[in-house]
Design a protein that fits this description.
By secondary structure, this protein is α/β, with parallel strands linked by helices. The chain has one domain (3-8, 60-385): Rossmann fold. Helix content is 50%, strand content 14%. The chain has 17 helices and eight strands. Strand 5, helix 8 and strand 6 (202-208) form a beta-alpha-beta unit. The longest helix is centred in the N-terminal third of the chain and has 25 residues, at 43-67. Residues 1-32 have low confidence and may be disordered.
Length: 387
Amino acid sequence: MTRTVFVCFLAMFTLAPATLGQAVKEQQPPAPLQAPAAPASTPQAMDSEYRKFDEMLTFLRARNAKQYVITSPKGIDESTYVTLGGIEQWVTVRGEDRDNPVLLLLHGGPGDVTNPWSFMLFAPWEKHFTVVQWDERGAGRTLRKNGPGIAPTITIDRMVQDGIELAEYLRKRLHKEKIIFVGHSFGSILGVKMARAKPEFFYAYVGTGQVSDSPVKNYAATYEALLKKAKALGDPRAIEELNRIGPPPYSSGEGYRVQWKWANAFEGANAFIYATLGLALVTPGYSVQDINDSGDGQMLSAERLVPQTQSIGPAELGLEFSIPVFVFQGEEDFTTSTALAQHYVASVKAPRKEFVAIKGGHFAVFMHSDQFLQELLTRVRPLAVSH
């Protein structure tokens, strides 16, 4: 199954369980691009071509390892399995100064690990934070280590507890009273629940691609936003297709695929999604196996977790917090509604809360990581360094 089916906004926690299976079954490959026919290759020639390609990737990984190495005296660069919830889970820790605040990223998907491709994007963050990434239960290298037999344990409640155990581990390992954490997309569900369960572990919670209401309301809101955008752009094809499917819910996967298609297009996300595959091929210490692990993890995680998200609304996410809550949302997020996220923050009670619309859509934290970093430095980091 290609990454385009199960990336964060395609598998998406908001898809009804029955529809998810139908959408996957009905997925049809796009029409092939018209291009001159390539000369036929023998198996031997293809093997030689791939060996040469692999040699180039090996060279690029080695070059990137040198370029992005942490050399500062107080720096840290650790990649290891940590026992969380009774199983070993993959965790990476990178930063140029151990005295900096710790920032834990909860990836989306579900199962869409960021470790294999984000090294370049987060390098500037590592000057100001010790950045921690975690392949959550059932995803990436955590799935590789434990196998699909852990499927029955892949629940939201269990993963929230895993995250709390990880936060406790990081506090002890890095000698910090508290940490900051960022939840993206599905990870924002875990994030708000962790914030409410163990507020004493955290300086602040930051959501992005924030899940803010039930799947039914989210799809309805994003449909209206997509149609409004299509009309503003004067895009006849988008208008025709969106009018044809009408507002959700849908009886088949076709309606959801049309929404995903235009969410991608209007957010400018397609180039980013494909670029992550290229980055994954040249990430130091990673390989094609990690791309396969990511795909397997997204499929298994969607199967287990999507049904568990169907009744999650504002009350289930939580409306009262005892730590500061920030949401840095893409101003045109057609996947997890920007309008609903803003309304959710307005409804929340917290000692401090802020909703900030930044450039981009659902993947703003990655596609506009520089602006996201500036918001972290301006609004969130001071909460940690003042202690």
